[in-house]
Amino acid sequence: QVQLVESGGGLVQPGGSLRLSCAASGRILSIGAMGWYRQAPGKQRELVASITRGGSTNYAVSAKGRFTISRDNAKNTVFLRMNSLKPEDTAVYYCNADIVSQLAGRTDYWGQGTQVTVSS
After folding, report:
1. Which letter does DSSP use for residue 55 in this model?
2. In the predicted model, is pLDDT for residue 5 greater than 90?
3. Are 83 and 63 in contact (CB under 8 A)?
4. What is the pLDDT of residues 22-56, one digit of tens each?
5. Residue 111 in contact with residue 34, Cβ under 8 Å?
6. Close Cβ partners of 98 (under 8 Å, ≥ 6 residues apart)
7. Is the dihedral of CA 61, 62, 66, 70 positive or negative?
8. What distance, in Å, lies between the first and last C-alpha atoms of the chain?
9. Distance (Å, rounded) from C-alpha 47 to C-alpha 11?
């Protein structure tokens, strides 16, 4: 059974930084693209950033210049470094990964979400 487990969320003041981590575990054969999404109260879930296995990245306009996505393929982990945080970044952040596993074949997986709150 494949799982994505996120960590690193919390409360931070405007202008502060956080680093989110998401580790995939289970009978994994390979992982393709990984990404971070977020969902604020009353809003739809939106893409924040994504990264291919080879390291190509894509960012939402709101994240460019402030957030950096990276991954460690050896550890099946993806990170999101968030700088210059704003109150409008407050949301539940979800990890997503395209995973090929022994039991389920190729499947899109989601983490349980981690709360990020930006407030003074």
Report:
1. -
2. yes
3. no
4. 999 999 999 999 999 999 999 999 999 999 999 99
5. no
6. 31, 32, 33, 34, 106, 107, 108
7. negative
8. 40
9. 21
